[in-house]
Structure formats: C-alpha cells, structure tokens
Amino acid sequence: MSDRKKVLVVHHTVSISTAAVHEAALQGLGIEELGVIEACSLPALTAGAHDTLTAAGVVLLSPVNIGYLAGAMKHYFDQIYYPCLEATKSLPFAAVLHSNSDASGALRALEAITTGMQWQPVADPLVVAGDPDAEVREQIAELAGTVGAYAAGMT
C-alpha cells in the first residue's frame, strides 16, 4: 500500500483551451515525481464519490457556459454531495474556470457549493480567458501545485 496522497483533478475539457488548462494543472502536480502524491485525473462526468473520498485534495477545472459552471461539473457535485458531505470537510481544493465572458455566476456557484461542503480553498479561483499563454499556464501549474502541497501535508 502506498503512502502517497491522491490529488483528484476533476475536469471538463471540451476545447483546445480547456485541454491546455488541464495539461498545465497536471504539470503543476510535478511534486508527484518526488513520490509524495499521486495525481488522478478524471472527467467530471465520471468522477464520483469514491474518487473524492479517497482524495487528499481536489483541483477543479471547468469551462464557464452561459455564465455558469459547466453542467458536467454540476453533475460531479450532484453525485458526490451527500456521500461526501461529512467525510470531506476541510478537503483542500482550488479551481480554474475557463471563460470568454463574465464568470461571476460560475464563481458564485462554485463558492456556494464548496462552502456548503465545507471544503478549504487553498488558492483563489483562477479565471482564464482564451488560450492560456505561458504566464497563465504557470499560474495554473502553481495553483495545482499548491493543492498538491496541502494534500501532502507540506504546508
């Protein structure tokens, strides 16, 4: 049995831009190379309660559709809400939202859901517009790495 901590990356990648966000987040979990954490990346439509219950941290990656979280991300939260409500209190998490317009509704929804679950934000949500350039990819990687460090108990 491994002593490594699992960081769950829940994503909905529907475009080249959201795929780039996903790739940058996985690169940010480079702490995995040290054998400290294990990155587990799952699409939001397939990630479930067991995946979340066995995670020491979560990175959420979602496009913003019509000013709201992607339906796939909402589906993920619908699936895990009751099974994980008590067991995942204080779970460290961070989120990246990809939006080409106003993301305020998605940010409000994300805050309401994660506050209701009593998850611990370890970084402010990052809103990305368009294709992420090198600087934005670095910010995404840093955000994911922060979750990894919290999950591994390194902070």
Write up what this structure looks like.
Helices cover 41% and strands 24% of the residues. It is an alpha/beta fold. The protein has one domain (5-151): Flavodoxin domain (Rossmann fold, 3-Layer(aba) Sandwich). Strand 5, helix 4 and strand 6 form a beta-alpha-beta unit. The model has no long low-confidence stretch (mean pLDDT 93).
What is the gist of this entry?
This protein is of the alpha/beta class and 155 residues long. It has helices spanning 16-28, 49-53, 71-84, 104-117, 134-151, and strands at 5-11, 37-43, 57-65, 68-69, 92-98, 120-121, 126-128.
Features:
155 residues, alpha/beta, Rossmann fold, 7-stranded mixed β-sheet, 5 helices, 24% strand, globular
Write the layout of secondary structure elements.
Layout: E1 5-11, H1 16-28, E2 37-43, H2 49-53, E3 57-65, E4 68-69, H3 71-84, E5 92-98, H4 104-117, E6 120-121, E7 126-128, H5 134-151
Parallel strand pairs: 1-2, 1-3, 3-5, 5-6, 5-7
Antiparallel strand pairs: 3-4
Helix pairs in contact: 1-5
Number of DSSP E strands? 7
CATH topology: Rossmann fold
Biggest sheet features: 7 strands, mixed
Helix content: 40-55%
**What is the helix/strand order?**
EHEHEEHEHEEH
The chain-level structural class is alpha/beta
Question: What's the CATH architecture name?
Answer: 3-Layer(aba) Sandwich
Low-confidence stretches: none
The first-level CATH class name: Alpha Beta
CATH superfamily: Flavodoxin domain
Q: Oligomeric state of the chains?
A: single chain
**Overall average residue pLDDT:** 93
Radius of gyration: 14 Å
Morphology:
globular
